[in-house]
Every structure is written in structure tokens, then in C-alpha cells.
Design a protein that fits this description.
alpha/beta; Rossmann fold; 2 domains; 13-stranded mixed β-sheet; 10 helices
């Protein structure tokens, strides 16, 4: 998300002009909300056609725009099914890809090279391809909560505890993709980045989720830093850069969460740059980063996310080492109920 847009819709930007802009965005959100409600109403009543794949489908999605941590969750679920000897494939729209694979696909291919990842606008066609050509036994639909044309056996909805309700307003006045009432369609809810908020705040979020999706399993999760990796696949321990100055940058949906994560692992940030979500790094961007890096102390290193690294593919920028913080999803509360839901999806398949 652009910093200006976030500061505007969050209300941090004050004054007459920002207030007028928010009024305009509020007006624009009315037709957006009407369209979202109408579309869901048509699907709920079966008036919009839906496609059921020949194998079970698990969707991972969210209510808001921006990063809630879907990629680590998709990896978590795909790895779980793969470890249970299921032939799993990941399907995604491929947002942010100008040509070829987007950053999420590149990260998943790097972390799960034996799990196919199909990208395209028509996810029903992708599902047919996965089943008919790859003999997939289960499909994981990435960012699929609002993509209702492909039926799913389980809807896993992620809610970022650091900004759970998208400033409480529909896009473009806020970050909500649809009204919060849509949460009633969820089969399971994962609260992400729980370590970035106080326990009382987390409890309030859980209580609201329980009201909106009664009886549905709710799990608490964190995005656990697992170590450092570079473009050559070399790895370092998590504490490798606690004694040197670090300059961080990223182009993801929730840059602030990444910054906080760097701080939590003991990194001393001396510089910080943010690019738009799904940013495609151009030659000019790389040269700008090189110039920025050359001005840093000689012992400094550069820190980015794995999504940035898979697009840049360089070991160094401006003679400074470039490392990415590898992130894994950790379910620390509610894991048993969540795993049971995932297991139930494949039970009919095994039983048949």
C-alpha cells in the first residue's frame, strides 16, 4: 500500500484537503460496497454459477487489502498435505506479475520446489489442469475468499491482528474488500501477527470474530523468523546481524509489520525504505538502492523480505551484502482444531 494512501485512510493525515479526500473516498466506497454485497448475494442464492473441482479445495484468503501473511499460510497448509502424502497444487491469480511468475509464486517455488504452483485469471481452468494433467489430489487456493466461482471445501480466513478490520471501512475509504459480515462464510479463522499487539487487543479481536463466525475454530499465529537466506541459497542464523548496522527495505503489503519483526530479532535498523506492494524492481530501482547502500557504513548489511529477494536475485547491492529474513507461520494456539479441519477435508477422499 502506498504510504500516502494508508496515512489518508487511517486518519493520520489531518487538514482540510485530506478531510475532503476522505469524503470523496467514502462516496466511492458506496458503489464498491453495493457491488460486493450483490455479488455475494447472487452466489449465496446459487444465481451465479460455481464450479466444483474433482478434488477437495482449501482456500486461504482475507477480508482486507494488503499483507495479512497469506504466503506463509499457503506454504504451511501445502507442506502439511504434502507431508501426508497428498499430491497438492497451489492455485493463484498472480497479482502483481507483469510477466511470468509473481513474488508469491517465486517464494513458494523456492521453499516448496516439489509442489506445483499454477497462476492465471481463470482459477477453474487451473483446477482442471491441476487434476487432469498433474494428478493433484488436493488444491490450495491462494487469496481465494472473494473468488467464489471455484467451490471450496474449507475457507481459511486470515485476520492481521495489527490491523484486523482495515480501518473499519470498505475500499477505497478503508482496506476492507467486503463487509466484515462476510466472515460468516469462514470455515476457520487464523489471527496472524498476534505477537505485534497487546493481549487485551488480541482478546477483543477474538471476541468480535466469535460473534461474526460463531462456532468456527480460531487459531493464534505468528510469523516466526526462521533465519537469513541470500540469493545463492546460503543461510545464516537468526542472530547473525545483531552486531552490525542494518538497512532494511521491502515492497510488501504490510511494511510496518516487517520492520517490527526486524526489530524483534535484534536488528539495529539505521535506514529504512518502503516500496509499493508487489513492487517490480526496475533497473532504476536497483541503481537507486545501490547508491543508497554505498552511503551506508562499510560493515552494514541490507535486509529485505524473501519476496523482494526472489525478484532482485543479487548477493550484494552497492558492495553491501543483501539478505532476506525467511518467515514461517507458527500456530501456537488452536493448532489441534485447525489441523482437524484440514484433515476432515481429505477424509472423504481417503474413505472413497
Amino acid at each position: 500500500m502506498e504510504e500516502y494512501f494508508l496515512s489518508l485512510v487511517s486518519g493520520r493525515r489531518r487538514g482540510v484537503w485530506p478531510t475532503l479526500q476522505r469524503c470523496g473516498l467514502s462516496l466511492a466506497s458506496v458503489p464498491y460496497g453495493c457491488g460486493a454485497r450483490l455479488r455475494n448475494w447472487l452466489f449465496d442464492r446459487g444465481w451465479k454459477k460455481r464450479f466444483r473441482a474433482a478434488v477437495p479445495v482449501v482456500s486461504v484468503g482475507n477480508l482486507t487489502l494488503g499483507g495479512t501473511g497469506k504466503t506463509p499460510c499457503v506454504e504451511y497448509i501445502a507442506r502439511l498435505y504434502r507431508d501426508r502424502d497428498q499430491r497438492v497444487a497451489v492455485l493463484s491469480r498472480g497479482y502483481g506479475a507483469r510477466a511470468g511468475r509473481n513474488d508469491e509464486a517465486l517464494v513458494l517455488e523456492e521453499n516448496l520446489p516439489d509442489v506445483p504452483h499454477l497462476q492465471g485469471a481463470d482459477r477453474t481452468a487451473l483446477a482442471r489442469t491441476a487434476v487432469e494433467e498433474l494428478d493433484s489430489e488436493i488444491l490450495v487456493l491462494d487469496d481465494g475468499f472473494q473468488h467464489r466461482r471455484l467451490e471450496r471445501d474449507l475457507d481459511v480466513v486470515l485476520i492481521d491482528a495489527s490491523n484486523p478490520w482495515g480501518f473499519g471501512r470498505l475500499f477505497p475509504r478503508g482496506l476492507l474488500r467486503e463487509p466484515v459480515s462476510g466472515l460468516k462464510r469462514a470455515g476457520a479463522v487464523l489471527l496472524t501477527r498476534c505477537d505485534l499487539v497487546e493481549p487485551e487487543v488480541l482478546q477483543q479481536i477474538r471476541q468480535r470474530v466469535e460473534r461474526m463466525a460463531p462456532g468456527k475454530p480460531i487459531a493464534n499465529t505468528t510469523h516466526r523468523p526462521a533465519g537469513w537466506i541470500n540469493a545463492q541459497g546460503q543461510s545464516r542464523r537468526l542472530d547473525a546481524f545483531t552486531q552490525v548496522p542494518v538497512a532494511g527495505f521491502c515492497g510488501i503489503g504490510n511494511a510496518e509489520a516487517f520492520r517490527q519483526t526486524l526489530t524483534k530479532v535484534g536488528v539495529r535498523l539505521i535506514e529504512w525504505r518502503v516500496f509499493p506492494d508487489h513492487h517490480e524492481y526496475t533497473r532504476a530501482d536497483i541503481e537507486s538502492l545501490r547508491s543508497w547502500a554505498r552511503a551506508l557504513p562499510t560493515q552494514a548489511v541490507l535486509a529485505a523480505t524473501q519476496k523482494d529477494l526472489v525478484k532482485i536475485r543479487l548477493e550484494r547491492l552497492g558492495e553491501r551484502e543483501l539478505w532476506a529474513l525467511k518467515i514461517e507461520l507458527q500456530v501456537y494456539e488452536g493448532e489441534e482444531a485447525f489441523h482437524e479441519m484440514l484433515s476432515n477435508v481429505i477424509q472423504p477422499r481417503r474413505g472413497g
